[in-house]
Design a protein that fits this description.
CATH superfamily of the largest domain: Metallo-dependent phosphatases
Number of helices: 12
Distance between the termini: 38 Å
CATH architecture of the largest domain: 4-Layer Sandwich
Structural class: alpha/beta
CATH class of the largest domain: Alpha Beta
Radius of gyration: 23 Å
Strand order of the largest sheet: 13-14-16-18-21-19-20
Length: 531
């Protein structure tokens, strides 16, 4: 936050304001340190909408400006407000209005705008205006981007020194560019309204090891991600994954290159030629790759909250479809001290899945919030979180091991742990949300209207249907999901930008269609990993 200058905290690039015509008003939460009411009003009156990817500017009328209600700040910007950098700031609430006649959408059903003032961009990709003529919602769910400068260095080294692998290299930056091209093409044809980024947006926040102490905000991987998204002409919602909580990178040797498709037996040669090889199979800095804060105690999530989205759990509505976002937290073994004694066995057995470790999962507070949101009388819910509730290392269908998924009452910790042990014994707790999957499954079964969840993390596409009447369960191809209000559908997306050797499906994402609160279509779209 710039000293003494007002800052728009919400809306944000990863949590925009949605305006659906004929409605023409939207709210803004502002952090202000100057304290001058007149100066704040002058600044607010200069704000306009700047069309993303076009020269169009839409003037705004300031309808109201005053102190923000604490409940509004908590809902829209609560985690940002708790950061040390927000200490001493006063929060204001502004309401703006625009004239629909000033919008020229060029035939597109959704327009995306920055908030600008006097030629300066105050908040990027902050407001999406939905036209009246489209029914339903089409969104792309893309997870596991893993954007990081080190992967760009390795991609460059492969191009120079090992061009025979260029055709299989799953370079995150290149794949993200291809996804953006695909999303923009769909949007230009009116076939895409919204992009949801499902976590692991960056591989780690800071580009260098902890010893390097180069933690500048402008040069970190969050900035690299936001720079890449500048070309995306579709509004974006974001949730964090476990990698977004990691402050520092692995050494390339320790992490190996099979993450981007380079066979392990060739990693040494590529890294040596790139100048990234070292001779230590283990060193004390390797555990820094699991740290969730820097030396000064600043959370890795601080930059995410300031620049991507000021909260990680929120709800919004787009084209009448209710969308709920929730964070599944960091790697659970990074918080091993907080794990309940009854879950220690689950934690230790889960450590064997090092490639996709379990994330923390859902706290009681999160579950209460989700229960309240799903029970507000609105029909139909789409729920997005990074680490799935159920995942297996094998292709065995869940119905072959758990033909009936009954979590029971889940009112006590022993009951929850019994269910979690059952899932782990059956092989469906490998790279998942560690805490309380049974509680959320129970809520999904009892929710009003159609319900579907979207996750990533496991780097492979899949779908599980739970019959909400009989509790029967089955694995199905993602393309067959949707259209049945009597089932809860749990969808998992492929990795957009990172692979592991042996995963047969290409990188890609899910394209989902909703109508009247229900999921009606799913398409898995692949991306070519080669250059």
């Amino acid at each position: 936050m710039e000293c003494c200058r007002p800052t728009i905290i919400w809306p944000a690039p990863g949590f925009p304001a949605f305006v659906e015509l004929p409605e023409t008003r939207f709210d803004v939460v502002i952090a202000d340190r100057a304290g001058s009411v007149a100066a704040l009003r002058d600044w607010a009156e200069a704000i306009a909408l700047g069309a993303v990817g076009a020269p169009q500017a839409v003037p705004l009328a300031l309808e109201s400006l005053g102190p923000a209600d604490p409940a509004l700040v908590a809902e829209r910007a609560g985690q940002y407000a708790a950061l040390p950098e927000a200490r001493g700031a006063r929060f204001a609430h502004a309401r703006f209005r625009f004239s629909p006649s000033a919008l020229h959408d060029g035939g597109r059903g959704v327009r995306l705008f920055d908030l600008v003032a006097g030629g300066r961009r105050e908040r990027a990709r902050a407001v999406a205006v939905f036209g009246r003529r489209h029914e339903g919602l089409r969104l792309a769910f893309a997870s596991d981007l893993h954007v990081a400068g080190v992967w760009d260095e390795i991609a460059s080294a492969v191009d120079r020194y090992a061009p025979e692998f260029a055709g299989i290299l799953a370079s995150p930056s290149r794949l993200l560019d291809r996804f953006i091209d695909d999303a923009n093409a769909l949007a230009s044809r009116g076939e895409l309204d919204l992009v949801v980024l499902g976590g692991d947006l960056v591989d780690h926040v800071y580009p260098h090891r902890r010893a390097a102490r180069s933690h500048a905000r402008s040069g970190n991987n969050i900035g690299r991600l936001l720079g890449a998204l500048e070309r995306l002409q579709v509004a974006t919602i974001a949730i964090p994954g476990n990698h977004d909580h990691r402050s520092f990178p692995w050494r390339p040797r320790a992490g190996r290159l099979d993450a981007v498709g380079i066979p392990p037996e060739h990693s040494k040669r590529v890294l040596k030629r790139a100048g990234l090889w070292d001779y230590w199979p283990l060193c004390r800095h390797d555990l820094d790759a699991l740290r969730t804060s820097d030396e000064d105690g600043v959370s890795a999530m601080a930059d995410y909250l300031a620049r991507v989205a000021p909260v990680t759990d929120f709800r919004c509505t787009a084209r009448g479809q209710r969308l709920l976002m929730a964070s599944t937290g960091c790697d659970v073994f990074a918080r091993w001290r907080s794990v309940e004694r009854a879950r220690w066995g689950l934690l230790l057995r889960g450590l064997s899945n090092a490639w996709h470790p379990n994330s923390e999962g859902f706290s009681d507070g999160q579950l209460a919030r989700l229960r309240r949101w799903m029970g507000d009388g609105t029909a139909g819910t789409a729920l997005f979180f990074h680490a799935p509730l159920l995942a297996s290392r094998t292709e065995v269908g869940i119905q072959e091991r758990i033909p009936r998924l009954d979590p029971g009452a889940q009112r006590s910790l022993p009951a929850r742990v019994r269910f979690e042990r059952r899932l782990q014994k059956a092989g469906f707790q490998c790279g998942v949300s560690f805490r309380n999957p049974g509680v959320l499954i129970r809520e999904l079964i009892a929710a009003q209207g159609a319900v579907a969840t979207f996750s990533g993390h496991s780097h492979r596409a899949g779908a599980i249907e739970i019959d909400r009447r009989t509790l029967g369960v089955r694995s199905i191809p993602p393309a067959r999901a949707g259209g049945r209000p009597d089932v809860a559908t749990l969808l998992t997306a492929p990795a957009l930008c990172q692979l592991k050797l042996g995963v047969r499906e290409p990188p890609g994402y899910l394209l989902a269609g909703f109508r009247n609160g229900a999921l009606v279509s799913i398409e898995q779209r692949g991306l070519d990993p080669g250059r």
